[in-house]
Design the sequence.
């Protein structure tokens, strides 16, 4: 069956991506943070001077690699297409709030799975929230929610985002003094540039090929009872879980987890916001990077929204604080984000039968 | 025999092409065509149509694909 072949492909990709994520932690990335789109975009925001939280500033090559891996594969397979124009500004704002939600919890959906595989039960609470958010998004989709169509754009438009990644890579390697780097904290913990970049390229390429999406798996299960996409996430989880247990990194519990806190209500609500926003955008933060690499400029704009969300989260004190919880400003921001998403969702329900 | 059903899902974000197809399939038509403009949508709609008991023939167009769905 075609369907089973796809499941096997996704499972293999999930295992390989899991090994990359685990490997990055072994080679220097922070614990349970082999990959985290939210954390890494946040670190990049810091490195570019968009926020001044001294412990989370590094130009993570994983992100550049993810975009470029997807770009290279999509060019080779002829899938690269410059397109955009589906409510770009709305997407920017949604990207902003997806980031605010993820940084309240301290992780994107990808890191949520990695934290869970490390025994961090706070991620289980977050997964419940994430699932609830996706459920809300599915209701909106079923009622006809849409951000409208995208259209073909000139090739240069779609090439710009991948080109920016190359420029950032050149700056990181050749002109690092232009950037800001953490000396302590999570931002100071990282694998060597070449390793991080290679892992990013591999994961980006595989995610492009398989359409792996942390939100999409749960969404498709709800929406059409299709378990194909979730196979990838499940394989990723099991792989990292086994690797953590074998290497003695597995530590079950709520307390004392690395780069985490036990504010259950806002772990739940933060990831609910992230899940809802992701479904409205058509994909989780990882998927947005991959789509941006394929020439989707709406996703590129979304990533910039995420970058701004990360900068705001640290400049204005929205972000969750490891070992403490979500500050009041962050709680307000998360609730504001949820209200924004719901109102937007109700507003943008497409008139039925628009032929 | 009603007139032929065409679902234009070009340019819609994931998973709207599948949702539009799902809505069109709800009335159990013998055949319908779905227009998509990217490979992910092509794969998703094909997979969904197959599980719903439709055979899919794919034609590549200048700006995407036309999927012809026929009930088995």
Sequence:
């Amino acid at each position: 069956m075609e369907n089973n072949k796809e499941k096997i492909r996704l499972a293999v990709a999930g295992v390989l991506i899991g090994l990359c994520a685990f490997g990055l932690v072994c080679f220097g990335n922070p614990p349970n943070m082999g990959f985290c789109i939210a954390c890494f975009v946040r670190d990049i925001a810091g490195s570019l001077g968009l926020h001044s939280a001294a412990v989370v500033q590094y130009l993570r090559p994983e992100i550049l690699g993810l975009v470029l891996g997807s770009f290279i594969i999509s060019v080779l397979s002829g899938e690269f297409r410059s397109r955009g124009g589906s409510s770009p500004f709305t997407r920017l704002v949604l990207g902003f709030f997806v980031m605010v939600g993820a940084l309240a919890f301290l992780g994107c959906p990808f890191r949520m799975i990695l934290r869970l595989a490390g025994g961090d039960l706070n991620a289980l609470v977050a997964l419940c929230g994430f699932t609830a958010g996706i459920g809300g998004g599915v209701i909106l989709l079923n009622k006809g929610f849409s951000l409208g169509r995208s259209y073909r754009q000139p090739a240069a438009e779609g090439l710009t985002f991948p080109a920016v990644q190359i420029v950032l890579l050149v700056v990181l390697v050749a002109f690092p003094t232009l950037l800001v780097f953490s000396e302590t904290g999570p931002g100071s913990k990282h694998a060597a540039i070449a390793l991080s970049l290679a892992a990013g390229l591999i994961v980006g390429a595989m995610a492009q090929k398989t359409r792996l999406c942390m939100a999409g798996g749960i969404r498709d299960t709800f929406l059409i009872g299709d378990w194909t996409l979730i196979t990838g996430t499940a394989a990723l989880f099991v792989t990292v879980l086994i690797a953590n247990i074998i290497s003695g990194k597995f530590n079950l519990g709520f307390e004392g987890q690395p780069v985490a806190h036990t504010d259950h209500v806002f772990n739940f609500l933060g990831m609910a916001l992230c899940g809802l926003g992701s479904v409205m955008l058509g994909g989780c933060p990882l998927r947005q990077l991959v789509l941006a690499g394929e020439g989707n400029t709406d996703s590129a704009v979304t990533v910039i929204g995420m970058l701004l969300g990360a900068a705001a989260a640290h400049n204005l004190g929205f972000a969750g604080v490891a070992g403490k919880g979500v500050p009041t400003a962050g709680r307000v921001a998360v609730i504001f984000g949820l209200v924004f998403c719901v109102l937007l969702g109700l507003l943008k329900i497409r008139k039925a039968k628009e032929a | 025999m009603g007139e032929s059903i065409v679902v234009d899902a070009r340019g819609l974000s994931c998973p709207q092409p599948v949702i539009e197809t799902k809505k069109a399939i709800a009335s159990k038509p013998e055949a319908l065509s779905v227009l998509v403009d990217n490979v992910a949508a092509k794969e998703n709609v094909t997979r969904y149509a197959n599980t719903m008991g439709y055979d899919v023939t794919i034609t590549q167009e200048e700006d995407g694909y036309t999927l012809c769905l026929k009930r088995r």
Q: What stands out?
A: The CA atoms of residues 36 and 216 of chain A lie 17 Å apart. Chain A has a mean pLDDT of 96. The beta strands of chain A are 83-84, 151-152. Chain A touches chain B at residues 2-3, 6, 77, 79, 81, 83, 86, 141-142, 146-152, 211, 213, 216, 219-220, 223-224, 226, 228, 281-283, 298, 355 (CB under 8 Å).
